[in-house]
Amino acid sequence: MKVLLTGGAGFIGSHIAEELIKEDYEVVILDSLVTGQELNIPAGARFYHIDIRGNLDPIFLAEKPDYVIHQAAQVSVSNSLTHPKLDGESNIIGTINLLNACVRHQTKKFIFASTAALYGNPNYLSIDEEHPVLPKSFYGLSKLNAESYIKLFSELYGLSYTILRYSNVYGMRQDTNGEAGVVAIFIKRAITGQSLNIHGDGFQTRDFVFVKDVAKANAAAILYGENEVINISNNTQTSIKDIVSELNYLLDSEIMPIYGQERKGDIRHSCLSNKKAIKLLKWEPRYSFIDGLRETVASMGQIQLKA
Ligand code: NAD
């Protein structure tokens, strides 16, 4: 069976590629390398350097993929606020272009990387899939629109799908430049002896899910979760202060964070229910936060870690 994976040169996509190859799928990657890197692509995957908004017919004709896993996106919340058109072109128009190709070439299933960002400020925790959606950024809005297009393509043309809404993903190969995830930034700064800057009091929480668990959820979605929207998370709240403590424990260090102004518009607490994923995808997260953090730090070289 062959999977066409968009965004496979990126952080999450490259782990999905590895997982699929391990599970004996043939993997074809489409990536424009706008944020991804060719060296992230695992051996064994075929690579096309192309933007998902381009003409995809020749690739679909040549490769005849059975499944499409769509990870490529404009992923930065702040870029979406300064460049909403670019965000919409990549995340909405790019997705429509891919959906069109899937229908024209009879793809069996479309699996989509969506986000907790479309829930906005939570009314309750843990946020389940029935929670109202009210995005606070154009990024969240473009992902919500992409979801709506996927559902209507399915209704009109019978394209089967699974939409996965990830919480905060962390792990190896996460970009530490620009607007990277807090875990990646903190690890890099901690191991190079730099200060850790916290916006606000540090008691704000996020639900961190390890990238290898996310990769397995995508592989599970090939088989299960037909026409469903499913949260992918650890269903645990970890505070920003907790990340500092866990890093200090692992590195046997005593880094004191520097507290700054709370960022306007930041959500105080976030946690996604993963009950539906456990039930429908026959998947559950295998990594606790400390285990995922240990594996991520260990991958960064000769660092002495506490057991
Ligand atoms: P990433 O930037 O590392 O990966 C995105 C990849 O897509 C990159 O390789 C990039 O070059 C490629 N790409 C971007 N636009 C493209 C285009 N128009 N055509 C072709 N390729 C293009 O980001 P990531 O964190 O790995 O995110 C993967 C997916 O997961 C995204 O859809 C993102 O919205 C979603 N997501 C990520 C998180 C997270 O915490 N990282 C959380 C929720 C959802």
Number of helices: 10
Ligands and ions found: nicotinamide-adenine-dinucleotide
Query: How far apart are the first and last residues' alpha carbons, in Å?
Result: 40 Å
Q: Beta fraction of the residues?
A: 15-25%
SS content category: alpha/beta
Count of extended strands: 13
- The gyration radius over C-alpha positions equals 19 Å
Main-sheet strand order equals 3-2-1-4-5-6-11
**Low-pLDDT stretches:** none
What number is the mean pLDDT? 95
Helix content: 25-40%
Oligomeric state of shown chains: single chain
Name the overall outline: globular
Largest sheet: 7 strands, parallel
What pattern of helices and strands is seen along the backbone? EHEEHEHHEHEEHEEEHEEHEHH
